[in-house]
Give the backbone structure.
Amino acid sequence: MFPTPSAEETIFIFIKYPSGTTHTFGPLSYTWPLYFLTHVIEQHEGTPASWQRLTLDGKRILDTDPGTLASVGIKNHSVLELSIVPIKRRAKKPVIYIYPPKEMEVSVEVELKGAWEFETVYPVVPVEKALTGGRKGERILWEVVARRDGTMTEKGTGLEISYLYWEALSIDTPPASRPTSPTEILDAFDAANPNLTSSNSILLHTSSVPAYLDKTLKELGLNVEARTSFITFWLPSFQPHTHIALLFLPQSSYSAAAPLTITPKPDEVLRVFMLFKGINEQNVSLWDAQRTWDWREIVGVGSVVDGSAERFRVVEWGGMEVS
């Protein structure tokens, strides 16, 4: 994705990590814009560009600087120091819809493992500390009476609702090296270090995002109400940017980090979780404009079920902005 430097432009640099180790990066070009360097580090080591703080001879280097590597003094065999400043991220509005074939009592448990913790839940229920498989986490449990029309009554509070709602805040953890394709994300989603790069996401002009989302969410199995709620919730977060990069997590990866247990067991559970970030004009060239993604395959969606069928369905959607 980065232009190959000519022999005359080629440089190699050294970057000292907080652990004390030094990594060699190259071949690079001294004519590259500065933001190329943070993206090279992200793709090579997995440290998100937004977490990186680079210094050269004691002076902070900003990847938003419009200059080049050469213009800030980076040359062949320069030694830069890298510090890592984690950013807390919020998983916003995962909401859970329940569509039973008849009125029934249902228990809904959400557990968070590893790098995040509950910030808000509705209806309000106690947040319990949990320890599963040696990993610390948290757990919430709703007991509801669910009806065919999608409405529910939460038994503890008596509230009548159309969905269950939770939000979570990431917990700072060191980033680990990560895969470059959504289909390679086999382990639990890491909320503190979400993986969104030019190699695993689609880039869209902001004006085309709503139509793209409506089409994609319909293909994934969300009904009109859920699609409309999803798009209108996230639209204000898209609008400050000219371009948006986005991806949808594999259900297996998302569920490993946030297991959802429904009793009695549904016939079908669909969990849709989007990562996105705003991309400025200077970074647009990092994305392959011709590449397309089969989100049904990546998310792991089976055959589309007729909404009128007598099946017990659970649908959840949510997302996270990667700054």
Observations:
- Helices lie at 34-45, 209-220, 224-238, 251-257, 295-299.
- The radius of gyration is 22 Å.
